């Protein structure tokens, strides 16, 4: 049975590598290979005009191999879905759940109209609905936030890299963290050397995304 699950996981990797993110998935392999599509909000872009309510996605990259935090906000259903992932935890290895060590922590929270209004206000005051910094290059071994928002039928994308004046302008982070019920401490931005992050001066291998006019224009 374990071998069958391993074979299935391998086939899933091949399949997921060619896929666009389609919607909710707690499969860490599928999420890994649709990560750029997820950040770009391809699923939100496709559905925005017919959603009937606002929809936001916030992604925090606290050095990718250390921590990623994602917050999906569904205005119509008044739901906040959150997930925190970090290093794999092999103590969770289970033959009934091959992907358990990589799933991280996922939670959902019903929120009120007042909370949604507060979050939207913070989104606007963080300039998330303003033109993004085109050409901004975001490496996986850095600290940054990205936002994709469907607001009243229009799509907005933005990004904030630490340290910067734009980062200091963010207000939505405090709102999200006040609502976070994962119990996982926030990976605070700080200065780290290549050796600190990678354990070597020669083995650094971060991946890159680049910000365009209203979304990602490239990754490697």
The gist of it:
It is built from 8 helices and 9 strands.
Which properties best describe this structure?
six-stranded antiparallel sheet; 8 helices; 25% strand; globular
Report on this model:
By secondary structure, the protein is of the alpha+beta class. It has 8 helices and 9 strands. A 6-stranded antiparallel β-sheet has the order 4-3-2-1-6-7, with no helix packed on it. The chain has a 3-stranded antiparallel β-sheet with strand order 5-8-9. The radius of gyration is 18 Å and the shape is globular. The N terminus is likely disordered.
What's the helical proportion of residues? 25-40%
Instruction: Sketch the topology as an H/E string, one letter per element.
Output: HHHHEEEEHEEEHHHEE
Which residues form runs of ≥5 with pLDDT under 50? 1-18
Mean pLDDT, all residues: 87
CA radius of gyration: 18 Å
State which percent range the strand residues make up: 25-35%
Main sheet record: 6 strands, antiparallel
């Amino acid at each position: 049975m374990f071998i069958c699950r391993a074979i299935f996981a391998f086939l899933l990797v091949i399949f997921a590598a060619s896929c666009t993110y389609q919607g909710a998935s707690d499969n860490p392999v599928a999420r890994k290979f649709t990560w750029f599509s997820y950040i770009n909000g391809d699923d939100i872009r496709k559905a925005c005009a017919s959603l009937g309510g606002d929809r936001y996605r916030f992604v925090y990259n606290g050095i990718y191999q250390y921590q990623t935090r994602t917050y999906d906000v569904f205005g119509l259903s008044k739901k906040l879905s959150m997930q925190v992932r970090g290093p794999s935890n092999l103590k969770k290895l289970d033959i009934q759940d091959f992907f358990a060590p990589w799933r991280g922590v996922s939670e959902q929270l019903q929120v009120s109209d007042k909370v949604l209004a507060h979050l939207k206000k913070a989104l606007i005051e963080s300039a998330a609905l303003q033109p993004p910094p085109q050409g901004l290059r975001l490496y996986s071994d850095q600290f940054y936030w990205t936002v994709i928002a469907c607001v009243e039928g229009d799509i907005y994308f933005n990004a904030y890299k630490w340290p910067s004046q734009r980062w200091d302008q963010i207000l939505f982070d405090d709102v999200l963290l006040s609502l976070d019920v994962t119990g996982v401490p926030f990976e605070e931005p700080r200065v780290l050397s290549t050796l600190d992050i990678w354990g070597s001066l020669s083995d650094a291998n971060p991946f890159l995304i680049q910000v365009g006019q209203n979304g990602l224009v490239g990754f490697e």
